[in-house]
Amino acid sequence: MAKNSWELKINGHDELLVRMERYSSESERLINEALKSKGSAIAVDRITEKIPVSEADLRRGHQHAKNSRPLKTQYINLGFIIRPT
């Protein structure tokens, strides 16, 4: 079985924390909305791009999991969880 390694890089983390402190009363709601509307879709797209497909092993007429919505998103407070379907 192939080994996969994932790494998440967050640029501007400190600046984000400073801005969140300024708008603390609304920041939780805004972050949840942003993660639900855009963040999870971006993450799923980036993960799906990295799923390897072996063209030689595909059977005629069958669709590879990469092309058939292979990931499911579960939303939690200030985040989301991405799992295979």
Structural write-up:
By secondary structure, the chain is an alpha+beta fold. Helix content is 42%, strand content 14%. The protein has helices at 13-22, 24-49; strands at 71-76, 79-84. Strands 1-2 form a two-stranded antiparallel ribbon. Strand 1 (71-76) and strand 2 form a beta hairpin.
Coarse shape: elongated
Give the domain tally.
Answer: 1
Number of strands: 2
Order of helices and strands: HHEE
Please specify the SSE layout and strand pairing.
Layout: H1 13-22, H2 24-49, E1 71-76, E2 79-84
Antiparallel strand pairs: 1-2
Q: Notable features of this structure?
A:
alpha+beta; 85 residues
Brief synopsis:
Helices cover 42% and strands 14% of the residues. The chain is α+β, with helices and mostly antiparallel strands.
